[in-house]
Amino acid sequence: MKDIKYLEEKATSIRKSIIKMICKAKSGHPGGSLSATDIMTTLYFDEMNIDPANPKMENRDRFVLSKGHAAPALYATLAERGYFDKEILMTLREYGSILQGHPDMKKVPGVEISTGSLGQGLSVANGMALNARLSGLSYRTYIILGDGELQEGQVWEAAMTAAHYKLDNICAFIDSNNLQIDGNVDKVMGVEPLDAKWEAFGWNVIKIDGHNYEEIQKALAEAKTVKGKPTIVIAKTVKGKGVSFMENVCGFHGKAPSEEQAEQALAELGGNN
User: Fold this and answer.
1) I need a labelling partner for 52 at 20 to 30 A (CA). Which of 111, 140, 151, 273 fits?
2) pLDDT at 167
3) Would you state the pLDDT for residue 1?
4) Nearest to residue 220, comparing CAs of 146, 170, 166?
């Protein structure tokens, strides 16, 4: 396991990139990108078997960002990991850029599947996991779902499928920040109790603080020991994590910070470097 300080430094750099690129684009989704950053950092810098120099390596671990609007977090993580030059991040949402508002598997190195239509990611992850089994490969498939996304019926069809086929090579995370575009998840369309629901659907359930690296690491380690069922990690997170005026503020679900706000955010994250 990687040193916690190392992961913290990587996550801070990724958060700075998220702020810079969304401010430059004047468009994007900072809140849910910042809440998922620590999970993504741990996956890409500590857990997954990947090679940025060979992004199509056959036995690589797969990652699916089902909540595709958090693309800035994925782009910043991929750039930090070395899949492409970090300067490209500043072209987010520009005409002709490879970095569209949602991930595009045909244009961005390291993106396994184009996502953004909510509710479909787990179905895709099931296909990837089944492919590993049928092909005799050892790779694992990881996925991040939004808690508001769980209001989509297809998620639960996919949950049944993964359990039915005993896809123990899947580890899914719920970025549970309790905010979606229209407000609090529990007020828009409540999804709790998540632990009881996923257990009833036949999954191994782990509950963690989604910003605690040790808990993320332990959850990932446990998931690899579970046989005969997929694992879901319910990660309690804070929307806009790391930027005081964005934390737990629904308005920053899909609103870019102004230049002044970006300067403040970067200062809180340790400076514009």
Assistant:
1) 273
2) 98
3) 81
4) 170
- From start to end of the chain, where are the E strands? 62-65, 141-146, 170-176, 179-180, 183-184, 204-209, 231-236
Cα 100 from Cα 175, distance rounded (Å) = 22
Question: What pTM value is reported for the model?
Answer: 0.97
Cα–Cα dist 231/214, whole Å? 18
Q: Where are the domains of the chain?
A: 4-268
Contact in structure between 143 and 170 (CB atoms under 8 Å): yes
Rg of the chain over Cα atoms, rounded to whole angstroms, equals 17
What six digits make up the tokens of 214?
Answer: 């040790």
Q: How far is CA 219 from the centre of its chain?
A: 15
pLDDT for 54: 97
Which of 13, 39, 32 has the alpha carbon at shortest distance from 177?
Answer: 32
Peptide bond preceding 193: is omega within 30 degrees of 0, i.e. cis?
yes
Question: In b/e form, how buried is each residue of 233-272, taking b as 16+ CB within 10 angstroms?
Answer: bbbbbbbbbbbeebbebbebbbbbbeeebbebbbeebeee
Residues with Cβ within 8 Å of 209's Cβ and at least 6 positions away in sequence, in order, are 215, 235, 236
Helix (H) or strand (E) holding 268: helix 259-268
pLDDT of residue 145: 98
State which residues of the chain have pLDDT below 50. Answer: none
Give me the pLDDT at residue 43, please: 98
Cβ count within 10 A of residue 187: 10
- Predicted pLDDT at 271: 83
Give pLDDT, residue 23.
98
238 alpha-carbon distance from chain centroid: 13
